[in-house]
Design a protein that fits this description.
It is built from seven helices and 55 strands. The longest helix has 16 residues, at 108-123.
Length: 933
Amino acid sequence: MKKFSLLLISTLVLCGTVAHSQQTQQKLKKIVVNHFFSCPLDELFDTLAMNYKVRIVFEREPLHEMDIVEHFFEEPLKEVIAKVCNENSLHYWIESSGTIYILQNTDDLARLQKLNKLSLQAANAVKAKEIEAPKAKPKHFLVSINGRVIDQQTGESLPSATVKIRGTDLNVMTNADGYFTMFRVPSDTSVVEVSYTGYQTDYFRLSSEKLNSPLICGLYSSLNSLNEVTITGKKSGVMNTDSRQVGVLQLSPANLDKLPTMGDKDVLRAFQLMPGVSGTNESSSGAYVRGGTPDQNLVVLDGFTIYQVDHLYGFFSAFNASAIKDVQLYKGGFTAKYGGRLSSVTELNGKEGNKNETNIGTDLSLLSASGYLETPLSDKSTLLLAVRRSYQGPFYNKIFNQFNQTTTTQGGGPGGGGGRGGFGGGGFANQITPSSYFYDFDAKYTYSISQKDKVSWTLYTGTDKTDNSRELGLPSFLSSGSSGINITDYTKYGNLGSSIKWFRQWNKKLYSNNYITYSSYFNDRNRSTSGFSQIDTNGISHTLSNGTLETNNLKDVSYKSEWEWTVSNKYKLLFGGFASYKKIDYEYTQNDTSKLINQHNNAMLAGFYTELAIDPNNKFHIQPGLRTSYFGPTSKPYFEPRLSASYNLTDKFTIKGATGQFYQFENQVIREDILAGNRNFWVLSNNSNIPVGMARHFILGTSYETDELLFSVEGYYKTLSGLTQYTVRQTQPAGGFRMDPNQNQTQSVTEDFYQGTGRAKGVEFLVQKKMGRYTGWISYTLAQAQNKFSAFGTDYYAADQDVRHEFKSINMYHYERWNFAATFLFSTGHPYTAPLSSYTIKTVDGNSITYLNISDKNAERLPAYHRLDMSVSYDLLKIDGHKIGSIGLSLFNVYNHTNTWYREYQMQNNQVITTDVNYLGFTPNVTLSLRWK
């Protein structure tokens, strides 16, 4: 009791009903204070509570030490509370129940809420009713209700919010547009509870009048600095899973500043911290999910496909977090709504824009700057604009100088062709920092035609330009009389996408979304080398001149219609159709004359899907579905059955599984290049040498979840067929990879696409702590990804993306307005193919032909990868507790471990010159985020 008395809370409990937060907000603005105060601060709050019938909770002793002498003349009550708190370094917070809390530190809220209840019980005080009693006896029974859950302050819809009827087992989740429908509600006086993590739970009582129109449920955000999350059934924290869905990760972009980052807040790279998604690809924001490649991951923003998800070699994802509301990653076994990919789906929903007031904000770091604007244009329309651009300053130069600190070795031995077409060179290189920048722009206009109809237009565009040209000097034992090698390496790539979406609520049971979308992608690269080789024994200086030009363009115009029919509380039918026209061009030209690849293809793709979500009771959920596609170039239909299910053995223990068949009609094919590194390009499947890809997924998992902890295990097995790869190496004579006397490649100009199969299997373990000052998770993935191409032999070999062991530890600690984070990642190295040695044969005509001996396909592995990242951020809060920004410091690769990105090679006088190109060493970054209204 002594300890409790030190935390004594003064609470004024008034008879009568308690207003909800929305009513309290309005009351604080309307009530006018005209009073002179000369007293301790606790007496001021007692007086305000008594005179204006509001409920105020605070700790008496510290506030009693604070004095106030002030005459308030015709001032709104809200301004009075704000002014008093500001002058005394306090915060206030309005709870959904209407209670006003006065806080010295924002972390005090949870403690004051608990002690408030204890004090009421101990004093046997007159308890305020949680909700008003029915005004009349119920008139209707077993009624149906429908409505929408929104953010009260911005008007944004809240997908996956939970709506339930108090005292019953009835509960539903809102769809992607925030709408819900519920049947067989006991009566028109039932109490509806609405909750969404990150927001205060609200509740209200139905009435017969409310049944005549859709319910608009507005929620207020929770105190931003609190680090307590609940995962089950809704989005929370930085990252979470869904106990009822198989292989689904959910992300809250608003909380990304709690994680260490190399650049900006990254909505895609954050997924790399979860099991099943490779976390060691610093050079890519693309998702390597369960043995899949980034092109096997469908990325959809507001209905249109994004084909390139990277900026600046993967330091940034293509998406500005300020423009994104909601992100979900389906790691496998995804529903029939999605198709066209073999591995996974990432769905992003853009913000609609604030419907109530204008918001502007900016994010600044040492690498980029971004800003956004969201504003209502009328009572029915909103606009959101977001722009981001990188800039090349001292920090940028430091990063790329680290990339150029590579090591060059001579001769045979393990090498590798795992190059990503980016940096290269060696310890003997006279290199320059690449000239590079990117920009992206987002726009979204939303117009509410009526309560049942809404139209939105979304635009995204982004471009990268990089000039990595440099001069490569040669070791003295190879370069007598040589002026070195000049390397030209210029790349430009980007996306353009747009969609028009029409949402329609036809009645209480039926909703639809219709999209017209356009997506395009381009990638142009010029890579060439020139210079002089060593003078031969005859005194002749041989010129080295070699180069490639690549252009890859893709266009996608589509229409799709998605429908949702809630038949009853137990049955929901999802169905729809789609049609698209795709065109892909790819040209790969060597030495300005030889077109090794000259692809110009187009195709029509159309089909439909249907899926039934069945919830026979609160424990069992099953979702069978079927997707059917017709692909023009093959003139064949493709059937994709899907099935997922979950069963709650207890309220904490769940088992779940999924299976399905998936087809992919456009592929990013690997063009293997042992010397300069692999390159990827998009092609369309056809009826000859590029098959339609197909995968089958088998997933089984279980989870045990309490209020504070989550334990999860998921295993998967995938089979793949119709994989495609292109290689120039196979066009050479059997003796090896041929080089002419002038060191120019004399390969054939025929196209060589090879077909293969694959398989991937693994098991993922996750332990997550969800509540308290300390939160985070640890995960371990044991996996294997293998391919088999007849061009490389009859056996399976490790795929490029194969990572056998991966361990991740994510740790976050919250103290008042401070957030600390540390992440540690470890994985085994990636496989690669190595040139082992070279030899020269003199022909009968006196010419010399040089050949390379190549290792078995992906027979070598890079060293193990590991790094530690740390960060600290400080939240900037308003007096009312709402977050207006943050200041953060991130430390990337704290102990400066050298991780190898790839290996690049140059041939000189029968010597293989190996260059290790490394990932970033220790790299700090500072970020500032600000929000204005």
